[in-house]
UniProtKB/TrEMBL annotation:
<dbReference type="Pfam" id="PF21806">
    <property type="entry name" value="DUF6879"/>
</dbReference>
<protein>
    <recommendedName>
        <fullName>DUF6879 domain-containing protein</fullName>
    </recommendedName>
</protein>
<feature type="domain" description="DUF6879">
    <location>
        <begin position="12"/>
        <end position="174"/>
    </location>
</feature>
<dbReference type="InterPro" id="IPR049244">
    <property type="entry name" value="DUF6879"/>
</dbReference>
Amino acid sequence: MTDSTFVSAGPEFVQFARSYQHTAYRLEVRDNYADPGEAEHVQKFLTGQPSDDSWMEDWMGLILRRTLEGQRVERVRVVTEPWSDYTRFGLNLSRLNTAAGEDIRYIARDRADELGLPTYDYWLLDSHKMCILRHDDQDVLLGADVIHDPAVVVEHAHYRDIARRFALPRADYLGTFDDEFLRKNNINK
C-alpha cells in the first residue's frame, strides 16, 4: 500500500485498534493465528483439557464496557470447511466474546470468494479509519498498515457491508451443524 504507515505489533498497534468511538469491525480470513498469549490455551483445547477462561477476562471486560457505552465491536470470520484446529478453538472461545456483546459472524471461504471479499485481515474503525494486518509465515502478527487513502477506506466499508449481510451470527452458524459433530470438535454453544 503506497498511502499507508506501518505500525508494529505492540502498544502502538493496540492504541490504534482501540481508538474507535462508535464501531470497530474486523474481517478475519486466516485459518491459523500464532499469538504467544494463546498458545497454551490452544494446546489445552486441542487435547481436551478443561477450559480456564480467566485469561480472557481483561478483553471481555473491555468489550462489555464498550458495549454498555453504546459502542459496537464486530467481526466476520471467513472459515475453511473442514475447520482448522485454530478455527475450532476460535469457534469455541467466541462464546465468551458474544456473551460480552461482541457480534461475531461466520462465512464459508468459498462463499466469501464468490462475494469478492478481501483475502487479508483488516480493522475498520468508525467507518473512516482502517488498517490491514500483516502476519509472517508462521502466522504471527507483525503489525499493520494504517491506510490513509479515503477511497480505500470506503471500499473496505463496502466489503464490511457485504460480509455482514451474508455471514451468519455465531449461534446461527453453529446451528447448521448437529450437536454430535460439535461435541466431537469440542465446540460449546
